[in-house]
Amino acid sequence: MSKSLSVNNLLGINDLNVNDLNLIFKTANYFKEIINRPIKKVPTLRDITIANLFFENSTRTKLSFELAEKRLSAEILNFSSSGSSVKKGESLLDTIKNILVMKVDIMVIRHSSPGVPQFIANNVDASVVNAGDGSHEHPTQALLDAYSIKEKLGNINNKKIAIIGDIIHSRVAISNIFLLKKLGAKVMVCGPKTLIPKHISDLDIIVENNIKKALEWADVANVLRIQLERQEVKYFPSLREYSLYFGINNKLLKSINKDLIIMHPGPINRGIEISSDVADSSRSIILNQVENGVAIRMAILYLLSLNIK
Ligand code: CP
After folding, report:
1. Which residues, other chains included, contact 63 with Cβ-Cβ below 8 Å and sequence gap of 6+?
2. Which residues, judged by CB distance below 6 Å to any ligand atom, belong to the binding site of ligand 1?
3. Exposed end of the chain (fewer CB within 10 Å): N or C?
4. pLDDT tens-digit profile of 54-78?
């Protein structure tokens, strides 16, 4: 196995090869062991400066990148567009270039517009990590999701993963599909037809519109949030109806009567796509996903730092 990544940026899952994925998981194992020790901090990135640039809201991704950077002893700049000169009309590129001249080595970017991390990577001499760009990709989420499945089931090859809900607006769904396919999983998407992109079966995945059939098929159900903020038209009549036909609750799971792992990238709309009795149950690994996000992001930042000249 090569000891370095084949890329200098992490913009999307398809930029990574299987060797990169195995290296990220192996490095995350190492950091996970470290952050469970009484002394959780290592000096690995002491000479590296990282800017966290969040132009869109975040809790999990923002905090786990920041914690990963602190655990690695990096210098950190935290930027969020609210309260910044973006509000005075400063352009994206001017904002980024002004931050870059402060000698930043790695930029972690979340933005509501697809392609912004790629645009920044094309225009600056720093390593760029996509922390979620519109409905395009969320590669670090997919990596922590796959790592969490691997941790629970031992491996991913031939495992059946159903991604359920608002697929059409979901960067998590797309990054998960790309990653799980690379690792040999069987992937299904399930939801109302209006929330599933028309040509998604071209990605060699199964499309199912019946939630019970999807759950009967799956080893793992990754339940997605209904993204009301990205819906300019009505994709289903009401949240109540969505919950009735596609919501995952204990009654539905009992009717299937099988071991099924439940995931959700967060934030959860409790009582809509998933009920509290399922989200908080012993079959849920939702908080393990969040915990693993720190080790995965430590691994990515460390491995990208090795490629900085
Ligand atoms: N899963 C995820 O990206 O959550 P945040 O929006 O809180 O970062």
Report:
1. none
2. 58-62, 132, 141, 265-267
3. C
4. 999 999 999 999 999 999 999 999 9
d(CA 30, CA 300): 12
Phi, then psi, of 89 in degrees rounded to 5: 100, 10
Q: Kindly give, in sequence order, each residue whose CB lies less than 8 Å from that of residue 277, ignoring residues fewer than 6 positions away.
A: 249, 250
- pTM for the model stands at 0.96
- Ligand 1: which of 53, 58, 138 to mutate, judged by most atoms within 8 Å of the beta carbon? 58
Q: How far is the CA of 23 from the centre of ligand 1 (A)?
A: 24
CA of 110 to the centre of ligand 1 (A): 10
Per-residue burial over 95-130, b = 16 or more CB atoms within 10 Å of its CB, e = otherwise: bbeebbeeebbbbbbbbeeeebbbbbbeebebbbbb
For the record, the structure tokens of 259 come out as 């071991």
C-alpha span between 183 and 300 (Å, rounded):
18
Supply 204's token pair: 């060699």
What tens digit of pLDDT does each residue of 68-122 get? 999 999 999 999 998 899 999 999 999 999 999 999 999 999 999 999 999 999 9
| Atom from ligand 1 closest to the CA of residue 266 | 1
